[in-house]
Amino acid sequence: MAGGMPQHGLPLYLPMNKPLVEHLGILLSARLGRGTTIRDAIPLYGGSVNDAFRLATDAGPFFLKTNTADRFPSLFVSEERGLGILRRAGVLRVPEVIAQGELDGTTFLLMEHIAQAEEDRGFQHRFGRSLAQLHRHTRGTFGLDHDNFIGLLPQKNTAHADWADFMVLCRLDPLVQLARDNQRINPGDVLRFERLYRRLPELFPAEPPALLHGDLWKNNYLASTTGEPVLIDPAVYYGHREMDLAMTRLFGGFDREFHTAYQEEAPLAPGWEDRVDLCNLYPVLVHLNLFGGSYANRLGALLRRYA
Ligand code: ADP
User: Which of 60, 123, 141, 152 is 20–30 Å from 264 (CA)?
Assistant: First the structure.
């Protein structure tokens, strides 16, 4: 569509091809039950791994993510599934998915556009309480019925009855191995991880598997104009609920009200503050593998606290 002229006469900013825009228009029309024209696609920034756009259409705005099929063919398949699992829990708002698929080597995820506003006074409190309610959703084992992604990294979700086994075999060790293969972690830290694995059962208090967002940092929620927290871009699994809470502290964006409300709704086991860094070994390993650089130092500092 780049270079084309839409009906309103302004040049389109569409770094996408015309067949894709037409294809999306057909899918949108089918979903809405009436002919719908995409008039413009405005790039959005803030995501870390995909291209994102706000689509202007004659049925209002929609949100679109695209990527290339050759590199990550199932990224949006698993994102749609994860969003669906969170939505069906019925606690926190999640954007509706309109369509997900591939055309000529471009994968896409088309969804409801969430109009955003400043967070109002009670926002963080409502969010903390709702997250605690989401975490009450449980099942018999840690894991999920399918593997998915965190960012661009594959995430294993093989079922385990024991949290420490899951944490080692599906979270920490696959990424320690990957970092070692790519020379992004020093041999001393690999040994520290191996020592830590043996201690994990005693470090974590027993908890039932909790439905997690799985990648809960400040860019993965939105504040809607109606004051609701909206979850986006999840890496869903059933895990130890302290994983989600620890991650909210890794890059800021969640305030004291959030944590107070969570604790009021579903108090954490004593000593949870001392386990924040332990939980965050996983997202820091993710960042080390995706971006390298200073994350090796950050990982080493966390690791030395426990091993
Ligand atoms: P990525 O997968 O690349 O990390 P995100 O899913 O985080 O991309 O989306 C990129 C940005 O687009 C977000 O930071 C957010 O500001 C915005 N965004 C994401 N989903 C929506 C949506 N449904 N409606 C409106 N804006 C959205």
Answer: 141
Domains 4-112 and 123-303 share a fold: no
> Would you state the CATH architecture of domain 123-303?
Alpha-Beta Complex (3.90)
Q: How far, in Å, from the CA of 46 to the mean position of ligand 1?
A: 7
Report if pTM > 0.70. Answer: yes
Q: What is the pLDDT of residue 51?
A: 87
Question: How far is Cα 294 from Cα 242, in angstroms, rounded to an integer?
Answer: 25
Domain boundaries, the chain: 4-112, 123-303
pLDDT single digits (tens) 65-102: 999 888 888 999 999 999 999 999 999 999 999 999 99
Q: How far apart are CA 155 and CA 175, in angstroms?
A: 9
**Which DSSP category does 15 fall into?**
-
Please say whether the beta carbons of 215 and 190 come within 8 A: no
Mutation to probe ligand 1, out of 42, 44, 287 (largest number of atoms < 8 A from CB):
44
Q: Are 232 and 95 in contact (CB under 8 A)?
A: yes
- Answer whether 222's CB lies under 8 Å from 83's CB: no
Q: Would residue 244 show up in a list of annotated catalytic residues for this protein?
A: no
Would you say domain 4-112 falls under CATH 3.30.200.20? yes
233 CA distance to ligand 1 centroid (A)? 7
Active-site choice (189, 215, 233, 244): 215
Amino acid identity of residue 306, one-letter, is Y
Nearest in space to 233 (alpha carbons), one of 157, 148, 134: 148
Tell me: the pLDDT tens digits for 250-263?
999 999 999 999 99
